[in-house]
Write a structure and sequence with these properties.
This protein has about 240 residues and is an alpha/beta fold. It contains nine helices and five strands; from the N terminus they run αβαβααβαβαβααα. The chain has a five-stranded parallel sheet. The longest helix has about 30 residues. The protein is elongated, with a radius of gyration of 40 Å. About 25% of the residues are buried.
């Protein structure tokens, strides 16, 4: 049997609706969960494994990039929606992946009508989006167990902290502290000003040397009038 590629498990909503209907006709129980999955970690993996154990098919809805920014901040997501969807689809416990651009997956839940709605344990039951829809048709809403010390925010903080430590150590080894914002630009301006002043000083010194080397000129810049008259008179007396 040819192995299923991860990207083949990423479906458009209309295709997914048909897959769910076929699975339900076979008597399979459908589980739905959602998340950003920005930096896939062990907490994500174990949560998805728990969700899959609640039924026969697991659907994972992945937030689009804009909805992640609105929920997490301007510096998120770390990975694009396309990369996040494919990474989640690569997990063996996941059957189908679908993307969504809204702030909540309510529209997906209403279309797919899952039998089980699963969400992380940090969510209160009455705060889980879509719970009323699932409960109204006799389904279940389940809070998944959390994995201690596993989370994207904490993982990013550790990564960024490790990345900044070598720079700090290098500066400390050379007796330098981290420059204040704008210090580099101010230093460049001061260096440029010094170079400009030094160049002007050199040009002034060269002009003074040239002036000293030239022979003195008579007033008016030529020989005086008496000298000129004497020269003319001598010229007339010659035979």
């Amino acid at each position: 049997m040819k192995p299923i590629r991860a990207r083949d498990k990423i479906l458009r909503l209309e295709v997914l609706v048909r897959r769910v209907a076929a699975a339900r006709a076979r008597g399979e129980r459908i589980v739905f969960t959602n998340g950003c999955f920005d930096l896939l970690h062990r907490g994500h993996l174990r949560g998805l494994e728990q969700a899959r154990a609640l039924g026969d098919r697991l659907i994972v809805a992945v937030n689009g990039d804009a909805s992640v920014r609105r929920a997490k901040g301007a510096d998120r997501p770390i990975r694009s929606a396309a990369r996040r969807r494919e990474l989640v689809a690569g997990l063996a416990c996941v059957d189908w992946v679908v993307g969504f651009g809204a702030d909540t997956p309510l529209r997906l839940i209403e279309r797919l009508q899952p039998d089980v709605l699963a969400k992380g344990g940090d969510w209160a039951l009455d705060a889980i989006v879509g719970s009323e829809t699932v409960l109204a048709r006799g389904g279940r809403v389940v809070r998944l167990a959390r994995v201690p010390d596993e989370g994207t925010t904490g993982e990013l903080a550790r990564i960024r902290g490790r990345a900044s430590r070598p720079v700090a150590r290098e500066r400390a080894a050379h007796g330098r502290s981290t420059p204040a914002p704008g210090a580099a630009k101010r230093g460049a301006r001061r260096t440029g000003a010094r170079k400009t002043g030094e160049g002007e000083s050199i040009r002034r010194s060269a002009r003074r040397r040239d002036a000293a080397a030239r022979p003195p000129r008579a007033p008016g810049g030529t020989r005086d009038r008496a000298t000129r008259r004497s020269a003319r008179s001598r010229g007339r007396r010659r035979p």
